[in-house]
Amino acid sequence: MKCESCGAPATVHQTMLVAGQQQQWHLCRRCAEERNWIQNNELNLPNILQQVIGQHLTPEMDELARLICPVCGIRFMEFRAQGRLGCPHDYEFFRVGLEPILHRLHRSTRHRGKVPQAGVPQNTLELLSLRQRLRAAVEAEQFHEAAVLRDLLRQREAGHESG
Amino acid sequence: MNLDDLTFTSGEWLRATGPESDIVISSRIRLARNLAAFPFTSRVSALQKSEIEHLLREKVAQLNLSPRLDYLSVASLPALDRQFLVERQLISRELANVEGPRGVALGPQETLSLMVNEEDHLRLQVMRSGFTLESAYAEIDHVDDLLEQQVTYAFSEEFGYLTACPTNVGTGMRASVMLHLPALETSKHIDKVFRSLQKINLAVRGLYGEGSRASGHFYQISNQVTLGKSEQQILREIHAAVPQIIEFERTARRSWLNDNRQGLQDKISRAYGTLCNATMMTSEETMELLSYVRLGVNLGLIEDLSIPTINELFIHTQPAHLQKLVGESLDGEARNTARANYLRARLREAGAQSHGSI
């Protein structure tokens, strides 16, 4: 049997019943480890289940699966696989996909508690985006652009903190 | 702050001075917070992580707190020291083991700790002895307010404080209480307690043990829901549930005494005897035996040994603490011997005599 991912001999075999359909998966050890199917020499069942279900997509979910956050670059499916979001903007950007999850976790989708004393912060998306652009400029070694962005960021943040 | 100094004490929250401290060891509140203008910890670049640490370290230092907090760069600490902080519950296992710039600001009494670059940029924690959720919350709320004046938190009107994991979003608050429940566990009634707590969305976890098996009969009760309820409501719910569990445990202890005093006395005496005499002791066994001794002290069956001393023994016999006390790195077997030596010495010092006849 060949690994479905890379074609090497498959040594990890999973048979699962998902929504009434039998699905079989065959991977080599390396690909299975890359997908976190194996941890400490044991099958990581919750992770496998999540990934399998994640790939068993309805048309709506299919669309959601393609969404990539413009700020931090995380895909919705990455979040589902690892359980962590990439940036504060994801709550807005992935709202449609998050709401059912929040409902399952908390039986609510709306905050009812403490609010920061200075009120709801404004323009945080702009700051977040500027910061990511700065990061990209630094990583691409475009230092002039980075300097410009850094100054802009400082200005905006100073304006922010004085209210 | 010198970690070696901490070694010889057991921290404020183990002083057993709080209310109901025969059964409630400690109360803890944790708030998860993130800066608005950075991605979450798992997604930031190494450079950004440094920036975040630097920024938060600076802001924390500027807080007008008394006594002042000391910052420890966890990334620079050797593994033993990190483990030490985990055992003391001052940092999480995650912060100890994850990579990259990260640290913790600690107060000298070990009640307040602020973790930087854990799963979220900032994790505030207040821990206190006994059943003291309200005063713990008052303290952490105040520190949160002070920090809010210095930084902009990621917050949306709709979803509240924004966290890396949706399980924490909203209030970002995890309130928990650590309980010692030897009678409920031994009588097997603890499962009923678990089930009734789960119905009201409270999670129960055995502390130090694997999964839901508790080591030393210690259990942690905490809220699972963080969104859709106010902080006060969450606290009220735990506050309402805990006294019932305390009462169940007290009742279970009384039943145990009534039904089988001799058997219980014997179990406690044997536990005490083993701790006083054995020459090798595993962590597991130490936890279990100390748990019975603690029960014995609570029930008045052992005198001359105090609860704070026992609390100290629980902490000092943990692997990293033990190695720091002894002053050297030890492997498994050597640790078990050192642990037994330490216990014998401490118990001899306490000079307690177990009274055999009641």
3D structure, described in words:
- The complex is a heterodimer of chains A (163) and B (358).
- With 163 residues, chain A is mostly helical.
- Chain A is built from 8 helices and 4 strands; from the N terminus they run ββαββααααααα.
- Chain B has 12 helices and 10 strands.
- The model of chain B is unreliable at 352-358 (pLDDT under 50).
- In chain B, helix 3 (79-87) packs across helix 11 (319-326) and helix 9 (283-298) runs antiparallel to helix 10.
- In chain B, 46% of the residues lie in helices and 15% in strands.
- Chain B is globular and about 65 Å long.
- Chain B has helices at 3-7, 46-61, 79-87, 93-97, 133-148, 182-186, 190-199, 231-277, 283-298, 307-316, 319-326, 332-350, and strands at 24-33, 70-73, 103-106, 112-116, 122-129, 155-156, 160-161, 173-180, 202-206, 218-223.
- In chain B, strand 6 and strand 7 form a beta hairpin.
- Chain B has an 8-stranded antiparallel sheet with strand order 2-3-4-5-1-8-10-9. Chain B has a two-stranded antiparallel sheet with strand order 6-7.
Task: State mean pLDDT of chain A (0 to 100 scale).
Answer: 82
The 3D shape of chain B can be described as globular
Oligomeric nature of the chains: heterodimer
- Major sheet of chain B: size, sense and barrel closure? 8 strands, antiparallel
Largest sheet of chain A: 2 strands, antiparallel
Percentage of β-strand residues of chain A:
5-15%
What is the helical fraction of chain B, as a range of percent? 40-55%
- Rg estimate of chain A, integer Å: 21 Å
Give the strand line-up of the largest sheet of chain B. 2-3-4-5-1-8-10-9
Average per-residue pLDDT of chain B, rounded, comes to 90
Low-pLDDT ranges of chain A: none
Structural class by secondary-structure content of chain B = alpha+beta
The secondary-structure class of chain A comes to mainly alpha
Strand order of the largest sheet of chain A: 1-2
Q: How many domain modules of chain A?
A: 3
Q: What string, H for helix and E for strand, traces the elements of chain B in order?
A: HEHEHHEEEHEEEHHEEHHHHH
Distance between the termini of chain B: 47 Å
The largest chain-to-chain contact, stated as pair and per-chain residue counts, equals:
A-B, 44 and 45 residues
The helical percent of chain A reads 40-55%
